[in-house]
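Technical note accompanying the year-one report. For the benefit of new consortium partners, we illustrate the data format agreed upon in the data management plan: each record pairs a sequence with a structure-token string. No post-processing was applied to the example shown here.
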Amino acid sequence: MSSPVPQLTWFLARRSGRRGLHSQLLAAGAAAVGSLILLVLTAAYFGSGARAHDTAWRTPAPDRHGTAVQTLGTTYVGDRPVTVVSLAQLPGRKATPAPPGLTVFPKPGQVYVSPALADLLHRTPADQLADRFPKVSSYGTIGDAGLAAPEELVAVVGRAASDPAVSTAAEPLGIFGQFGGLTARAPVSGFGGTDVSVFTSADKPAVSIGVAIVAVPVIVLAAAAGRLGAARREQRLAALRLAGATPRQILAMTGLESTVVGAAGAVAGALAYCLLLPALAEIPFGIGTWYTDRLWVGLPWLLAIVVFVAGLIAVSAMMTLRQVATSPLGVAQQANPRRTRLIRLVLFAAVLLYIYVTTSSGGISARQQLALLLMFYGAFWLLGPWVVDRLGRITARFARRPATLLAARRLSDDPRGSWRTVSGLVLAGFVAGFFTVGNVGMDEYRFPGQIAVPATSTATARTATAEARTLLHTAGVKATVTTSDGDDGLLFGTPGVLVHVSGSGSQLDTAVTALSDLVPGQLPYTQEYANAESETFTGRLGELGTAALAVSFLVATASAGLTAAANVLDRRRVYALLRLAGTPLKLLDRARFRETVLPLVVLAGGTTAAGIYAAFQVNKLFDSTISTSGAVTLVACVTVGALAMFAAIGASRPLLRAVTEDATQTAD
């Protein structure tokens, strides 16, 4: 005999009326948003790792039996880095395979450039860029397989094995030998290196932190979708339970209905992700925008996230039915308010103490940092309902206005539901507090207008100094050229030539171009080269903060609006009875807003303060101070976030009016 659960579930879903349909649509919408954002986060995580891996071939992997010589160099045009890979086939050795992005190994005199560099070469005077490379009649093109982003500037130069630019006798000098990922030289037999470029090395760690920050509110939103229409569902299933349905049948019906609704929404979100892939690829991060295929998560991950969202909604919905299974009569009579226990506060304090002790000891890995961040979020999620419950009781004791009293009763009667309304913005408060007032940075070198060219000895530097004056005079660059033993400027302890250029940025580019062949195998460099690693790190943190703030507040606003609408539907009987008792609609609406404001001020204020404290600790670690401009940004973020949340809650006002229009029928 077949189970009656599917047929009965379908029958009740069809007969749930317009209000039930609204709840199902809201749940499906939340599932769609949740799956879309989770897919985007997953795509960013894997995509950042993939494009960092796509830069590893440029750093030579030394092989004493190598068949070619490869050098990696980095030069700058303004503040934009240009990666230069020089390759020379060693005579008498077997042919070396082509590097990624090229179809053949480059011959001496051939130059391949990325499309973005080809465009820049076309738009920039030759004495500012093109003259740094061998003169050719036409440039070859580096394909997507050899690039991390469409905007990346990369050149591959074919040279003879005797060319000083690739000679194994010429080792990187000065700062060239200090910074990995920018300069290297070694014999190679292929392009299987693992050392990624400095300009992409921070991408995946930064995205990992962003995923941990944003994923929790998104999961909270998806879990809240499973609780939409909980009161209507509880009343309906309690009646079935009293009529003889078993707890297992009740759970099966709920799981089936919520799974279908969640799966429909999750599939819609997955389809939206597929359609939005070209647009998502145009969002810049780090070195530029994305190749679309780097952001494709693959079918297994897409299906896994759809199943995860649908399963999360089903589990969340079934967890609301514990009271239905054990006390259906109490549910039918709307008895036993959902109290919280003191153990929540104890566990919260224990988690915070553990986090404090762990972070104070120092030396924690990136994986441990992510775990601690998730623990922090979980601790606040555990504490939130307890604080809302106590806040409702305290407010009810001192309330002097009807709206405040109604709000306080709702807070204490359903603290978990009230917490879900504000949880998104409460968790976003930590993100805002940390990323706005934080001023994380690394020491930067400040040598504006200076160019350094390292040399093997002071005598060589003197000879190069005289030649540099001639080259700069011929190029029309006004500059002061001196010989240095490395005690000053950008040479960092290595003898060489120091050039102080007077004039605009184009003069600096012209000077770098003129000095490109001054010392064989040693490219001239500016302060941008020395600051590449620190600026990449701080730049990724800045971009991460902006993205995390935007997504967190958007999710928080959507979660608040969604939960507010669901609460109206769940409490329509209560609202109808209050209207029958003569309560004005404005008073009910005012109570709804106070029900949101009270926990928001207390809890969001607490998480924002925690974020500021965390930023202060990190600033202290980097010997930096709190950003004063960030404090203004923080106030703006909190204000805009609160206003957006209130607007989202206000959007459910027509729904409140609709469910109380026919109060007699609704109350029945």
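Partners are asked to follow this layout when depositing records. Strands lie at 68-77, 80-89, 111-113, 140-141, 154-158, 184-188, 450-454, 479-484, 496-501.
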